[in-house]
Amino acid sequence: MISTAFEYERATSLDDALAKLAAAGGAGKLIAGGHSLVPLMKLRLSEPTVLIDIANIPDFAGIREADGRIEIGAGTTHHDVAISALLRARCPVMAEAAAAIGDQQVRNRGTLGGSLAHADPAADYPAVMLALDADFHLKGTNGWRVVKAGDFFQGMLTVDLAPDEILAKVTFAPVRAAAYAKLHQRASRFAIVGVAAALAVSDGTISSVRIGLTGASSSPSRLENVEAALTGRDATAGAFSAAAGIAGDGVEDLNEDIHASADYRRAMIRVFTRRALDGALARIAG
Ligand SMILES: Cc1cc2nc3c(=O)[nH]c(=O)nc-3n(C[C@H](O)[C@H](O)[C@H](O)COP(=O)(O)OP(=O)(O)OC[C@H]3O[C@@H](n4cnc5c(N)ncnc54)[C@H](O)[C@@H]3O)c2cc1C
To answer: Quick one: how many helices (H) and strands (E) in the chain?
Structure first.
């Protein structure tokens, strides 16, 4: 199928994009990489009459560190996240997750902001955003607001983002001891189960841990029972093994589809939680 007819406009700034959105009166859609929106339009599940292209807004893309926090512009492509020397040195889990997205064409066009705003249940970044406790900076016609990753994702393809708002950037404190591990679909590489773990270890003891899960259910979530089981424990293989053994126990709405049954997903949450924890710990040494 082909999409319904639409006008195309190119925004020159965030404010210009917001003005164009307002002028479209609810019938406009932002387009960044187009890798999620265009398929929906071709299926006529989305029928905007105006497409507002935000891919070429100056300063909308870029990765920097300031005041101890990493800032990534929402227009940054997955490719640029994956190859970022700053991220690879300071917070390698972000680059690791980006490199695991789709194929090179998808990574060249798809953007961090597009992925987070679309909130596909099988997208990779949401697990990492939860593990890093990222802040999402939204600009709307009434100014800026900041939403925690844990509050942003609200359900299947549903986020805390008003129709007159743009996700401008995400910020987070870099964590070196963090890793992402996923079981991916063979064709698309979307996550069947994806787990991001971020550790803080002091004198061999886990002082804090955050674990984000994606792919397994309708929206991303934290594995709080695993976090509780690990906090205050020594960072040992035995502790990881025991904690990973209860991963997925509290997850209610496990997906069941052609890629994996709910039972298989639950088993894989355990396997990939263990892999993410091992990967995070290895980064403390490495
Ligand atoms: C073959 C294929 C394989 C893929 N594999 C994976 C994978 O393995 N893992 C994975 O995570 N993803 C995967 N994806 C999805 C890919 O990462 C998309 O790029 C991403 O989900 C959407 O980003 P985009 O920039 O293309 O957004 P678009 O398609 O342009 O936009 C998506 C939605 O977000 C809105 N939007 C875009 N930017 C903003 C913004 N800054 N503020 C507010 N709203 C905004 C748009 O209006 C639209 O509703 C795959 C896609 C394809 C086609």
So the answer is: 12, 14
pLDDT over threshold 90, residue 70: yes
Dihedral angle at the C-alpha atoms of 97, 85, 116, 206, nearest 10 degrees? 60
* Ordered structural domains, the chain, with CATH: 7-53 (3.30.43.10), 63-172 (3.30.465.10), 178-285 (3.30.390.50)
Query: Residues near 172 by Cβ (< 8 Å), separated by ≥ 6?
Result: 69, 70, 91, 129, 132, 133, 134, 135
Average pLDDT on 168-193 reads 97
CA–CA distance, 127 with 145 (Å, rounded to integer): 22
* Pocket perturbation via mutation, ligand 1, pick of 52, 54, 101, 130 by most ligand atoms within 8 A of CB: 101
Angle value at C-alpha 15, between 162 and 41, nearest 5 degrees: 55
What is the total residue count of the chain? 286
Ligand 1 pocket residues where CB is under 6 Å: 29-37, 74, 101-102, 106, 110-111, 113-115, 117-118, 120, 123-124, 161, 166-167, 188-190
pTM, rounded to two decimals: 0.97
Cα(92) to centroid(ligand 1), Å: 21
Our mutation pick for probing the ligand 1 site, out of 16, 115, 161, counting the most ligand atoms within 8 A of Cβ, is 115
* Residue range 146-173: mean pLDDT, rounded: 96
